[in-house]
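C-alpha cells as discussed.
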C-alpha cells in the first residue's frame, strides 16, 4: 500500500541544551523528519483559553442529552493529523494524551484511511455479525494474520477471546477464571449437579460459588461490575455502586527512581508478596481467590511501578497456590517500547491470561487452554468484539512492524526521560518528584508538589499548545503515540521548561 507515511530520519541529540536548535530548524527539515508529510510543525492557538467559545457552546448542546462535565475540549477530528489534535476553535495542540492512551499510530493515518475505504472493511462494517454464532468466512484469516500472528500473541498463550472494550476484556477474563477454577475443583469430565444448576438461578451456592478476584491498591481494571469491584484507583468511580466483596493487597511501597533504591524496594516488594500470600491463604476460608489481576504499571492509580522480581514472585505464588494470573495490559500494550510490557519480566511460565484494548483498537484476552469454556454459550455475547476493529488492529500492527515503531518509542522515551532527569535537578527542582518510567518507552510520569500544582502545569502546558494528562492524586503522565518522535519531544520539553520556570 502506498501512502505519505515516512521513515524515521536521524535523531536529534539527547542533550536538552540543544532545544534552542528547534527554533532555528527550518519547517522543511521538521516535515521531513515527521512520519506524516502534512503534520504541523508547531502548536497554533487561536482562542484565548481552552476550551474556547465553540468548544464550550457544543459541550452545552451535548449537555442537553449526555454528561458533559468531563469534556476538556471538543475535537475536529477531520483536521487532526498525526501527533496533533485540533479543536473546533482551530487550536492545534501536540497531543501527548492520545485519547487516554488509546491512539497508536496517529490521527488520520493514511494506511488506516485506505483500509477504511476498502470493500472488505466497508462490508465488514455494514454487516456486523454475531461472531460467536455466525462468524465471517475470513474471521480466522483476519485473526491469524493479525492479533494471533506469531510475533503478536503473548508467549505461551495461543487462544484469543475477542471483546468490546477493556472493561469487557477483564470481565470476560474473570468469568473464564471462575469457570476454570470450578472445573479444576470438580475434576476432569465431571458434569454439573442438579443442585448447582438450580441454585445458580437463585444466585446462591453451590451454583453461584463464593469466589473472588484479588487486585491491588491503585489498580484500575474497568467500570463494569466485576472489573469495578477490582478497581481501586479513585472513589468517584466506585461510590454508590454495589460491589463484590473481593480482597485487595497493597501495591509495593517502592521509591523512585527504582534503580537508586534497589535494596529498599526489594524489601518493599517482598513485604507486598508476603501479604499477597497471606491473603490468598486466608481467603480460602472466606471467598477463595480464583484469580489475581495485576497491571504492569498501575496506570490510572498514578503510574505505580515495580521491578520484574515482584511480578516473578507473583507468578510463583499464583502457581504454587492454585490461583490464575491475569495481566491487564489494556493501557500498557505497545506503550513501553515493547509489544507487551510483561515480556520484560522474564517469567518462568506465562501468565494464564493477558487482557488488551486501547492502542490495539480492538479488545479481548489471550489465554491458555485451561481458560477455554467447557461448553458453548458460557463465555459469550452477541457481538464478541467487532470484525472491523480486528482489521484495524491488524493494520496497526503491520505499520508498527514495518516502521519499527516500538523501537522508536523506546528511543524517544529514553531521550525524554534523560532530559526530565536533568529538569529535576535544574528548573524543575522542588517542582518535579518521583520521576518514573525509565526503560519503559514513553510511559513516563512524575508527581507535582500538590494536586493543584499538577493541574496548573497541565493547564499551562495546554495554553502553550501541548496536551497532557494526569493520573492518581498528583501525577502527570505522558501517553504519546508510537509515531511521537524526538522533534515532537523537543517541543514538549521546551514548553515544559518554560512552564516550570513560571510556576
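Sequence:
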Amino acid at each position: 500500500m502506498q501512502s505519505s507515511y515516512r521513515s524515521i530520519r536521524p535523531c536529534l541529540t539527547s542533550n536538552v541544551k540543544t532545544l534552542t536548535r528547534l527554533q532555528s530548524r527550518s519547517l522543511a527539515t521538521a516535515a521531513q523528519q515527521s512520519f506524516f508529510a502534512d503534520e504541523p510543525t508547531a502548536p497554533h492557538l487561536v482562542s484565548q483559553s481552552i476550551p474556547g467559545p465553540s468548544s464550550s457552546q457544543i459541550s452545552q448542546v451535548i449537555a442537553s442529552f449526555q454528561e458533559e462535565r468531563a469534556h476538556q475540549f471538543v475535537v475536529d477530528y477531520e483536521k487532526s493529523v498525526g501527533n496533533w489534535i485540533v479543536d473546533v476553535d482551530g487550536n492545534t495542540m501536540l497531543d501527548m494524551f492520545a485519547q487516554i492512551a488509546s491512539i497508536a499510530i496517529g490521527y488520520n493515518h493514511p494506511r488506516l484511511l485506505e483500509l477504511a475505504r476498502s470493500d472488505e472493511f466497508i462490508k465488514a462494517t455494514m454487516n456486523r455479525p454475531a461472531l460467536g454464532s455466525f462468524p465471517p468466512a475470513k474471521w480466522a484469516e483476519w485473526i491469524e494474520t493479525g492479533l494471533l500472528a506469531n510475533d503478536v500473541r503473548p508467549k505461551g498463550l495461543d487462544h484469543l477471546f475477542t471483546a468490546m472494550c477493556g472493561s469487557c476484556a477483564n470481565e470476560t477474563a474473570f468469568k473464564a477464571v471462575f469457570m476454570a477454577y470450578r472445573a479444576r475443583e470438580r475434576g476432569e469430565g465431571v458434569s454439573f449437579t442438579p443442585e448447582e444448576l438450580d441454585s445458580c438461578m437463585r444466585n446462591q451456592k453451590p451454583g453461584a460459588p463464593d469466589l473472588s478476584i484479588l487486585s491491588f491498591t491503585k489498580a484500575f481494571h474497568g467500570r463494569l461490575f466485576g472489573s469495578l469491584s477490582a478497581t481501586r484507583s479513585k472513589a468517584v468511580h466506585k461510590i454508590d455502586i454495589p460491589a463484590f466483596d473481593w480482597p485487595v493487597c497493597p501495591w509495593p511501597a517502592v521509591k523512585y527512581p527504582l534503580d537508586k533504591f534497589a535494596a529498599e524496594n526489594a524489601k518493599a516488594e517482598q513485604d507486598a508478596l508476603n501479604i499477597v500470600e497471606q491473603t490468598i491463604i486466608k481467603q480460602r476460608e472466606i471467598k477463595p481467590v480464583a484469580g489475581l489481576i495485576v497491571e504492569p504499571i498501575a496506570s490510572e492509580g498514578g503510574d505505580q511501578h515495580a521491578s520484574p522480581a515482584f511480578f516473578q514472585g507473583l507468578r510463583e505464588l499464583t502457581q504454587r497456590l492454585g490461583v490464575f494470573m491475569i495481566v491487564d495490559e489494556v493501557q500498557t500494550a505497545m506503550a513501553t517500547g515493547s509489544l507487551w510490557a510483561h515480556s520484560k519480566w522474564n517469567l518462568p511460565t506465562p501468565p494464564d491470561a493477558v487482557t488488551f484494548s486501547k492502542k490495539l483498537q480492538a479488545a479481548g484476552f489471550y489465554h491458555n487452554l485451561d481458560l477455554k469454556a467447557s461448553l458453548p454459550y458460557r463465555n459469550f455475547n452477541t457481538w464478541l468484539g467487532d470484525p472491523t476493529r480486528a482489521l484495524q488492529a491488524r493494520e496497526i500492527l503491520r505499520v508498527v512492524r514495518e516502521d519499527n515503531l516500538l523501537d522508536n518509542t523506546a528511543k524517544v522515551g529514553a531521550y525524554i526521560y534523560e532530559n526530565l532527569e536533568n529538569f529535576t535537578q535544574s528548573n524543575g527542582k522542588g517542582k518535579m518528584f518521583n520521576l518514573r518510567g525509565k526503560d519503559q518507552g514513553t510511559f513516563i510520569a512524575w508527581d507535582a508538589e500538590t494536586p493543584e500544582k499538577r493541574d496548573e502545569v497541565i493547564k499551562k502546558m495546554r495554553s502553550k499548545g501541548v496536551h497532557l494528562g494526569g493520573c492518581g492524586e498528583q501525577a502527570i503522565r505522558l501517553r504519546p503515540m508510537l509515531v511521537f518522535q524526538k522533534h515532537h519531544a523537543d517541543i514538549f520539553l521546551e514548553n515544559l521548561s518554560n512552564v516550570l520556570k513560571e510556576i
